[in-house]
Design a protein that fits this description.
This protein is of the alpha/beta class. The chain contains eight helices and nine strands. Helix content is 37%, strand content 12%. The chain starts with 11 loop residues before the first helix and ends in a 13-residue tail after the last helix.
């Protein structure tokens, strides 16, 4: 039996096409729904609606909502500098009275003290005597641990030439010998101290010093060595003083003998004796050679007194006057020595 044919059934091809067209239309519609809407100009209503919607959601869009005014930035205060610990100011060394400068008088008589550490002691004493006297100006060229023997250590001829070129002086006072108890090295040879050749060479060096000083000074005084505590040194110093005296007399300059100043009543060395006021004081240092401040004053005063007997009044007026006033009468007799 044949199945009945449906009246509405059309051909199969048109049905299939219609189905595909519907499916395509559905896809396009879905795509349009999912695509973002085109930007439209915002109106007051839309903005208000958006803001209300955002407020309901609890979100804050900082670009749309009013913001609190920003606090002005506080001015940064400049950082306080921590106080730096200041170093305590260095205390100025008190200058010795002998080093105190005084006003230079162009017309003053200038006295140059030249020599080793004993000359330096003499300079301190003379400088203290005349530190307030504008008519006398004291200059010096002294060097400790030097002498006329070790010219390889300190060339006195060269130093003295430079000193004379730079300084003007009228009177020169010389003290050498404290360090000259040594052999002399001459042209690769060693001359034993106080041998005949040594004495001749040493005497020639004394002559050279005198000649150099006389190119500038009108008057030169050579001061002998003082008595010392050591017996061996005392014997050698007597030999040196003999050379100084002989060469000074040959050159026509004044030799100043101070040997008797620092001896006791028995003629022996003593560290004590009268100062410029006659009071008994310590005059020598512990080494038995150099002088204390009181000894420097006594040393200088004796030299000034002897100088005043030779130098004319017009050359050294104040020095002569002070030397006469400050003459000291010893408390005990002091025999001559040398």
């Amino acid at each position: 039996m044949r199945a009945p044919v449906c009246e509405f059934a059309g051909p199969r091809r048109p049905l299939r096409v219609a189905w595909l067209s519907g499916l395509l239309t559905l896809c396009i519609t879905a795509a349009l729904c999912l695509a973002p809407p085109a930007a439209t100009p915002a109106t007051a209503d839309t903005v208000l609606a958006d803001n209300l919607w955002d407020m309901l959601k609890g979100s804050k869009d900082t670009d749309e909502l009013d913001e609190k005014p920003a606090k002005p930035e506080a001015k940064k205060k400049p950082a306080k500098k921590k106080p730096t610990a200041q170093k305590p100011a260095k205390k100025k060394k008190k200058r010795r009275k002998a080093d105190t400068p005084k006003a230079v008088n162009p017309g003053a008589t200038r006295v140059a003290v030249v020599g080793d550490s004993l000359a330096q002691d003499l300079w301190f004493g003379v400088q203290r005597q005349f530190r307030r006297n504008k008519d006398v100006d004291i200059v010096r060229l002294t060097k400790s641990a030097s002498g006329l023997v070790r010219d390889d250590n300190y060339d006195w001829n060269e130093k003295l030439e430079n000193f004379i070129a730079e300084e003007r002086f009228d009177i020169a006072v010389v003290v050498f010998g404290g360090n000259d108890r040594q052999e002399i090295r001459l042209k690769g040879k060693r001359l034993p101290r106080f041998s005949e050749k040594w004495s001749v060479e040493y005497g020639n060096r004394v002559d050279k010093i005198i000649a150099l000083l006389e190119t500038e000074a009108d008057t030169v005084f050579w001061v002998g060595l003082p008595v010392v505590r050591s017996d061996r040194m005392e014997k050698d110093y007597k030999k040196l003083n003999k050379i100084y005296r002989t060469r000074s007399e040959a050159a026509g300059i004044q030799y100043v003998d101070i040997w008797h100043l620092f001896r006791d009543e028995n003629g022996e060395y003593t560290s004590f004796g009268p100062d410029l006021r006659g009071a008994k004081r310590r005059l020598r240092q512990d080494d038995g050679l150099h002088f204390t401040a009181h000894g420097q004053g006594r040393f200088a005063d004796e030299v000034v007194k002897i100088m005043s007997k030779t130098v004319q009044l017009s050359s050294l007026p104040q020095m002569i006057k002070r030397a006469e006033v400050r003459e000291v009468v010893p408390q005990f007799p002091m025999p001559n020595g040398g």
